[in-house]
Amino acid sequence: MSTDTVTIAAFAGSLRKGSFNRMLLHNAVTLAPSDVRIAPIDIDDVPLFNADIESPPPPAVARMRDTIRNADALLVVTPEYNYSMSGPTKNALDWASRPSDDSCLNDKPVGLAGCSTGRFGAARAKLALLPVFVFNSMHVLDDPMVHVARANTKFNAQGELIDDEIKAEMRELLAALAAFARRLGKGKTAP
Ligand code: FNR
Questions:
Q1: CATH number of the domain that 14 lies in?
Q2: Which terminus in the chain has less CB density within 10 A, N or C?
């Protein structure tokens, strides 16, 4: 008997310890369907992109690229800063996109989620990400995306999601991203 397991690499684009986007990512690990494995990426030690230090890549960058390359899909969980993605989100994607002739983003299915304390749940950040995904020849899952508005009211003190609707949306997103990856021939068969 074999299981068709899909691995989704995922990072949250906030460096703040109490980040709601980090909380959402941690919740995704437990909300994932049994045939989906989340491989969280820690971007805390990813430096600001600088072509002078590209080769060899900083260790945190090498680890991030390996995790994305070995995964069947990528989930980006981003805050919204000034109607766009956060700097850490863009910086992580800039590093991941290099070298351009061997990018770990190329041909990768990608899904989106985001938290903001505002009314629109980082929806504008996600719109700003679309050209980045297109430039990198990624396959964007445009529906569903998860937009967590008023994120400061959606988690308890332990960082657990306390909103059943958002939990259901996250489960739906992870299942849809896995199905999308499988349709693109990315699912791996594990013994
Ligand atoms: C914000 N925030 C914000 N929120 C929003 O809904 N739209 C926006 O354009 C912005 N812009 C913005 C810029 C900057 C520089 C900061 C620091 C914050 C508020 C943001 O949603 C809130 O701080 C979130 O809590 C950030 O995500 P993390 O760090 O909790 O994951």
A1: 3.40.50.360
A2: N
Report the separation in Å between the CA atom of 79 and the middle of ligand 1, taken as the mean of its atom positions: 6
The residue segments making up the domain with residue 114 are 4-185
Task: Look at residue 53 and tell me if it is in a domain.
Answer: yes
Q: For residue 123, what are the contacts with CB-CB under 8 A and spacing of at least 6? A: 80, 114, 145, 147
The verdict on the CB of residue 80 being under 6 Å from ligand 1 is yes
Read off the pLDDT of residues 110-164 as tens digits, 9 standing for 90 and up: 999 999 999 999 999 989 999 999 999 999 999 999 999 999 999 999 999 999 9
Asked whether 153 lines ligand 1 (CB < 6 A), one says: no
Please give the model's pTM, rounded to 2 decimal places: 0.96
- 85, exposed or middle or buried, with CB in 10 Å at 0-12, 13-18, 19+? buried
Q: Which atom of ligand 1 is nearest to the CA of 116?
A: 21
